[in-house]
């Protein structure tokens, strides 16, 4: 193929999902000649093109700015937890913020190769309508979600989970429905939750799962398509006739770095989404008139390749509420690794450890659900769950690739073990990683360091604080309310830890 254009930049960001967009904005705001390459024709990745519109994690920095700007224009639904963005306007706002910062955007440009010399990426090669293009830069940020650039550059990566024989988390394709009566659905949910208070814990499940079981008995569904789900409200119409996005149906036994398996997942999801919409319309109050108006153009891959960075952030760190000098984000969310194989639980909210973990909620291993949570091996020791009153920190070192001196990774391909990425992949954290990677890249270029690992991570933390990211105070708002709630931690039917007071109330909003 002929080589077309050549570009010479300070910082190049590969991938324009939420992590890449935040990285591009941040590097450009820090004075770098920055270019972002995105293989699709819009920004936001899974959050927008994948219809994962609910923002989890501790929302600060560029993520907060994006959300507030969208809300000011009527394109976000603000809630204490999981605020939602309208995906089309979400894309446009990221584009506006990148261009205002001075970052160049190349759409329709897929990074396909790179040239590494003396342990540094010299240039990347992308496929585009101009043929092969070459982009030279001082620092590269891999925000492809799949660590594509790190893999091409020969930087060490890992994929999947040993406990699940290398499988990835289950895959779920998002979709959008119009003409939904959200008020009616919420009312039905509230009534169902009241009813559950009169039932023993073994009968507890969500309203949708309950209805799915009914549909299976009636022969309208042949399997449980969604062992759990979230309905994300959109700022459209009125509550009695609005749009929602959902991610509900699961495909199992996934290998998310294999093109044939990815294609199988997509076909499987296409069928399941259509079945699920038919089911919702027939069985779930509020969805009677729903119309499928959007099927994600990006498959709902939760995890694939992750870099092996200067520090591998661990699930133990999350349970232990570990603090780091070079912290770049605070993370108060629980474990959320979606189980790779079928079962009646969606995700595992616990890990196992030989002895109780300080700061975590621990109990000796229970046998009840072990075959579902751990189908290949029964881990013993203790079940460890995140204490909802605490939070951990994520270090800058987990963005720095090893063996390649000028490469950072941000978002769901950062350096973390399987259960840790299962938690810290959420949108607010991915954007915080992007912001830190962009800032760190700029600092590395300005300091003229030979390798990014020479940069002191705590200086990046200090710089982020100057940018208004409150890394020097505990998470506020929703998280503060949970911290101060007077109640006792209890494990729920879906494996969460919730704080309950004497009246049975709890402060969580999913
Ligand atoms: C089903 C599901 C439900 C989820 N639920 C939630 C939730 O409720 N709340 C929450 O906060 N998070 C949730 N998450 C997690 C969250 O959505 C993602 O982890 C996060 O959006 C990842 O962002 P990213 O930028 O790292 O990657 P991605 O969104 O994957 O973006 C990567 C971008 O890079 C581009 N790209 C890839 N390869 C190349 C290449 N070679 N060249 C050029 N461009 C490339 C892609 O087109 C894409 O735009 C969910 C995820 C899934 C799958």
Summarize the structure.
This protein has 510 residues and is an alpha+beta fold. It is built from 13 helices and 26 strands.
Tell me the layout of helices and strands.
Elements: E1 3-8, E2 11-14, H1 18-29, E3 34-38, H2 61-72, E4 76-77, E5 84-85, H3 87-101, E6 104-107, E7 110-117, E8 120-128, E9 131-136, E10 139-142, H4 148-153, E11 157-159, E12 174-180, H5 182-196, H6 207-217, E13 230-233, E14 242-247, H7 259-283, E15 291-295, E16 305-307, H8 315-319, E17 327-331, E18 337-338, E19 347-348, E20 351-353, E21 361-364, H9 370-373, E22 382-385, E23 392-395, E24 407-409, H10 418-424, H11 427-447, H12 457-466, H13 478-484, E25 488-491, E26 497-500
Parallel strand pairs: 1-9, 2-3, 2-10, 3-6, 10-24
Antiparallel strand pairs: 4-5, 7-8, 8-9, 11-16, 12-14, 12-15, 13-14, 17-23, 18-19, 20-22, 21-22, 25-26
Helix pairs in contact: 1-3, 1-11, 2-3, 2-11, 11-12
Flavin-adenine dinucleotide binds near residues 40, 54, 148 and 247.
Account of the protein in words:
The protein has 510 residues and is of the alpha+beta class. Among the domains are: 3-161 and 393-466, FAD/NAD(P)-binding domain, CATH 3.50.50; 174-295, no CATH class. The chain has 13 helices and 26 strands. Strands 6-3-2-10-24 form a five-stranded parallel beta sheet. A four-stranded mixed beta sheet has the order 1-9-8-7. A four-stranded antiparallel beta sheet has the order 13-14-12-15, with helices on one face. A hairpin with a 2-residue loop joins strand 7 and strand 8 (120-128). The chain is globular, with a radius of gyration of 22 Å. 52% of the residues are buried. Flavin-adenine dinucleotide is lined by residues 14-20, 37-40, 45-47, 52, 54-57, 110-111, 143-146, 148, 172, 230, 247, 300-302, 411-412, 425-427, 430.
């Amino acid at each position: 193929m002929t080589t077309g254009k050549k570009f010479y930049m300070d910082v190049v960001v590969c991938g324009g999902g939420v992590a890449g967009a935040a990285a591009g904005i941040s590097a450009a705001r820090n004075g770098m000649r920055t270019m972002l390459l995105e293989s699709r024709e819009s920004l936001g990745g899974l959050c927008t093109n994948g219809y994962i519109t609910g923002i989890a994690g501790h929302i600060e920095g560029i993520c907060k700015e994006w959300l507030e700007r969208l809300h000011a224009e009527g394109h976000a639904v603000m809630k204490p937890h999981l605020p939602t963005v309208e995906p089309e306007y979400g894309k446009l706002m990221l584009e506006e913020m990148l261009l205002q910062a001075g970052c160049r955007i190349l759409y329709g440009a897929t990074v396909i190769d790179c040239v590494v010399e003396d342990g540094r990426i010299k240039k990347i090669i992308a496929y585009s309508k101009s043929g092969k293009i070459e982009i030279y830069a001082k620092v590269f940020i891999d925000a492809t979600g799949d660590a594509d650039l790190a893999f091409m550059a020969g930087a060490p990566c890992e994929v999947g989970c040993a406990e699940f024989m290398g499988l990835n988390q289950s895959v779920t394709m998002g979709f959008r429905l119009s003409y939904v009566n959200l008020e009616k659905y919420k009312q039905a949910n509230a009534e169902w939750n009241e009813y559950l208070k009169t039932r023993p814990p073994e009968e507890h499940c969500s309203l949708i799962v309950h209805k799915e079981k009914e549909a299976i008995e009636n022969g309208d569904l042949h399997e449980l398509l969604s062992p759990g789900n979230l309905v994300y409200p959109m700022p459209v119409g009125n509550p009695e006739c609005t749009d929602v996005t959902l991610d509900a149906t699961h495909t199992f036994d996934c290998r998310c770095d294999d093109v044939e398996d990815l294609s199988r997942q997509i076909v499987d999801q296409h069928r399941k989404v259509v079945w699920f919409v038919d089911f919702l319309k027939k069985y779930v109050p509020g969805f009677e008139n729903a119309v499928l108006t959007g099927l994600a153009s990006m498959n709902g891959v939760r995890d694939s390749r992750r870099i092996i960075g200067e520090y591998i952030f661990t699930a133990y760190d999350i349970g232990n509420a570990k603090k780091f000098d070079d912290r770049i984000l605070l993370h108060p969310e629980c474990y959320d690794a979606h189980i790779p194989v079928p079962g009646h639980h969606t995700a595992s909210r616990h890990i196992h450890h030989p002895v109780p973990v300080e700061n975590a909620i621990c109990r000796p291993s229970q046998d009840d659900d072990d075959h579902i949570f751990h189908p290949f091996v029964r881990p013993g020791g203790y079940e460890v769950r995140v204490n909802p009153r605490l939070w951990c920190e994520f270090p800058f070192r987990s963005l720095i690739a090893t063996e390649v001196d000028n490469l950072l990774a941000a978002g769901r391909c950062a350096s973390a073990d399987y259960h840790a990425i299962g938690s810290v992949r959420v949108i607010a954290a991915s954007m915080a990683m992007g912001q830190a990677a962009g800032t760190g890249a700029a600092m590395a270029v300005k300091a003229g360091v030979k390798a990014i690992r020479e940069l002191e991570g705590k200086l990046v933390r200090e710089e982020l604080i100057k940018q208004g990211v409150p890394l020097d105070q505990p998470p506020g708002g929703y998280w503060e309310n949970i911290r101060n709630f007077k109640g006792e931690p209890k494990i729920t039917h879906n494996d969460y830890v919730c704080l309950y007071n004497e009246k049975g109330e709890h402060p969580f909003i999913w």
